[in-house]
Specification:
The protein is an alpha/beta fold and 568 residues long. It contains 16 helices and 18 strands. Bound molecules: alpha-D-glucopyranose.
């Protein structure tokens, strides 16, 4: 490979039909990104004001977590109307303007779709309650009679992901106890019935509505959950996620049912009708890479989040293993891999990597799993810097969660009175939940909301730590040692070198070093061992996550190398 020393604008080189194969997508959690109207909650005006920042950061696309009208029982993942904008965030006109402005800057726009459940405030759910048992209106959801005398027991043993039974009983108009309805998340998020043609049609109309407005793609929430085994059998202790390596055909009654694939084939056909290509990314927590690959077969979804990468502890064996299995399983179906270190549901990677990695079970990704473990946050930051270079040197699409580029840690001590995540209430306060990664972004050193809201606004919706001034964008901008500048440099190099496409050739640099070549001139090396290692003598350092002076790669450090001659 010839490493270009100067840049032509890489967006010009991206194939408009396959932009999603190598895109770096920046996740915006709108409540916490930027508050334009001064009410303490982020909004579309805030996002619009930060689009130039995102263009300068060098991302190809943004993904915006749900912005639809919502009672906010699950921070917007409880949608009351899929074809409008939540007033707290703005209006449809604001959304249109934002999409247009992003496109002007060469940034694609991906939005969230939540097809597993509605909000209980969606008109269809009210109609279903009013229409009574056996009605077509109830067919759109999962209503059943209870078990046991008087139907007093839930229809089966399914549990809500957030704790407690997955069923809530309704009350008949005459005050007597009625049927139960299924909710795999909060009781205010009734699951919809994907065996119902109305539901299928409704979501297809929604996809077209937003595609017609210029949206470039959708993130599909809980993509593995839509279809339930219609006989609703007990789960009976069948574990999830499916993390075993056996070939046994697991048949879970509500996760990863084969019927989901037919839905995604029909969605793909809708996306294919548009130019430039629209794309999907699935949130499918299905464990084994081979199961995930089924979602990205050529006539299904374009991409799917690689949560195995996010969950992998910081060890050479685990990281090598997950990169290998990801590349192999995706190559088998011709789909690009994705790489993700963080999102709005998991503790930030600085705080995960701050913990002794040998104590982290790969499937534990909740803050409550981390809290009992000792933490070294300087180490966590070093590793997070190295992880960023590792991720951005791999082929495929990569996701950056807002604040990741600032090296924000998880906020682990939000006062209980301020916690908003339904996990906290639904577990009776035993689990703190996900608010710690949702704290509003610090833009300036100004201690009053760090520039998140205009001066004089009410407090942000979640309290920000007192020591975040030096983590703000203003503090990091222009500081070559900052996380922000590391991300900017890495994103620019990734584009210029075309790292988003192509193959990985493993290099043997010792058991503790994850090392691979891309093309014939670029190498990424990450030292995960306990001692520094020498770098090859003929290597030129393109970028490093730490100090690599003297040809030595320190521990928990990554480096991008140009091997041999660089042509410019
Ligand atoms: C997804 C979202 C999460 C939400 C859940 C229910 O996992 O990422 O935030 O709570 O779906 O919609």
């Amino acid at each position: 490979m010839t490493l270009p020393a100067t840049s032509t604008h890489p967006r010009d080189r991206q194939d408009p039909q396959t932009w999603w194969r190598s895109a770096v997508v920046y996740q915006i959690y709108p409540r916490s990104y930027a508050d334009g109207n001064g009410d303490g909650v982020g909004d579309i005006a805030g996002i619009r004001s930060r689009l130039p920042y995102l263009a300068a950061l060098g991302v190809d696309a943004i993904w915006i977590s749900p912005w639809y009208p919502s009672p906010m029982k699950d921070a917007g993942y409880d949608v009351a109307d899929y074809r409008d904008i939540e007033p707290v965030f703005g209006t449809l006109a604001d959304a249109d303007a934002m999409i247009a402005e992003a496109h002007e800057l060469g940034i694609k726009v991906i939005i969230d779709i939540v097809p597993n459940h509605f909000s209980d405030q969606h008109p269809w759910f009210g109609e279903a309650l009013a229409a009574g048992p056996g009605s077509p209106e109830r067919e759109r959801f999962v209503f059943r009679e209870g078990r046991g005398p008087g139907g007093d027991l839930p229809p089966n043993d399914w549990e809500s992901t957030f704790g407690g039974p997955a069923w809530r009983r309704t009350t008949n108009p005459d005050g007597t106890p009625g049927q139960w309805y299924l909710h795999l998340f909060t009781p205010e998020q009734p699951d919809v019935n994907w065996h119902s043609p109305d539901i299928r049609k409704e979501f297809e109309t929604t996809l077209e509505f937003w595609f017609d407005r210029g949206v470039d793609g959708f993130q599909i929430d809980v993509a593995h959950g839509l279809v339930k085994d219609a006989s609703l059998p007990d789960v009976a202790g069948l574990g999830f996620p499916f993390d075993d390596d056996s070939d046994a055909e697991l048949n879970h009654p509500h996760w990863d049912q084969p019927g989901v694939h037919e839905i995604y084939r029909s969605w793909r056909a809708i996306a294919e009708r548009y130019t430039p290509a629209r794309a999907f990314v699935a949130e499918a927590w299905v464990g084994r890479p081979a199961r995930l690959a089924a979602y990205v077969r050529p006539d299904e979804l374009h991409t799917a989040f690689n949560f195995e990468f996010l969950k992998a502890p910081w060890t050479p064996r685990q990281l090598r293993g997950v990169i290998r299995s990801t590349l192999a399983s995706h190559a088998g179906v011709g789909a690009p891999a994705t790489w993700v270190l963080a999102n709005h549901d998991v503790p930030r990677e600085v705080s995960r990597y701050a913990r002794p990695q040998e104590l982290l079970e790969p499937i534990q990704v909740g803050l409550d799993d981390l809290l009992p473990l000792p933490a070294d946050f300087d180490l966590g930051r070093r590793r997070a810097r190295a992880a960023a270079l590792l991720m951005l040197s791999l082929p495929g699409s990569a996701y950056v969660y807002q604040g990741e580029e600032l090296g924000l840690p998880e906020v682990e001590d939000i006062p209980e009175a301020s916690l908003q995540d339904p996990i906290f209430t639904q577990t009776g306060g035993t689990l703190r939940g996900r608010d710690g990664c949702r704290v509003p972004v610090p833009w300036t050193r100004d201690p009053e909301s760090y520039g998140f809201s205009p001066a004089g606004s009410p407090e942000p919706w979640l309290p920000q730590p007192r020591d975040w001034a030096e983590l703000s964008v203003a503090a990091q901008e222009g500081d070559p040692g900052s996380m922000l500048e590391l991300y900017r440099s890495a994103l620019a190099l990734r584009r210029n070198l075309g790292l988003g496409v192509g193959e990985v050739a493993w290099v043997d640099a010792g058991a503790d070093v994850v090392a691979f070549r891309r093309g014939d001139g670029f190498e990424c090396r990450v030292n995960l061992g306990a001692t520094p290692v020498d770098l090859p003598a003929d290597a030129g350092v393109l970028l490093a996550s730490g100090d690599v002076e003297g040809g030595v790669l320190p521990t928990d450090t990554a480096v991008w190398l140009a091997m041999g001659r660089i042509e410019g």
